[in-house]
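Reopening this one. Same input as before:
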Amino acid sequence: HAQAAGPSDHHGATVYLMRLGARAMAAMPEGYVRALFDGYAPAFDKALTEGLGYRAPELLFSAVQAAHARARMKFGSVLDLGCGTGLAALPFRPFSDWMVGVDLSAAMLAQARGKGLYDRLIEAEVQRYLTEEAKIGARYHLVLAADVFMYFDDLGPVLRAATQVVAPAGALAFSVETHDGD
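Same output, byte for byte:
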């Protein structure tokens, strides 16, 4: 599992409080998530990597690498859900022919664009994007979701939507958070 998705303790507390009030929703409100990450975008990478020792990208990469231990790791197309600034895409880029990033936050996408990792960046809500991609028969050899599923109360619908765009023999790699208590 990966540790701490947010760039500060304040972020984590804010998300937790929002989750308490969002129990009847399938996901956190788009406007809330967009505003939260638009505000964090400029300092996001530094806060996560230096402040919190964020390891989700390296853990995802290690897991995918281990799953491909018997064959050369190469992906025709990669979809990075909730791509943020591109931290999760970074280790996968050398093994990918085509990389698409999807995020709600325009400011996070601007940071990602500056890294030059993606062939295409889309501002959209993850589940809606997956549904639209499935309708047109889009298929990805690898679908990544680093600390994005924490914003959904029920992972069933978003995971079902993700499996609709995973190519045969493709993979879905994601991280979730754990915590003590119920």
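So the earlier flakiness isn't reproducible anymore. For the record, The first helix runs from residue 9 to 21.
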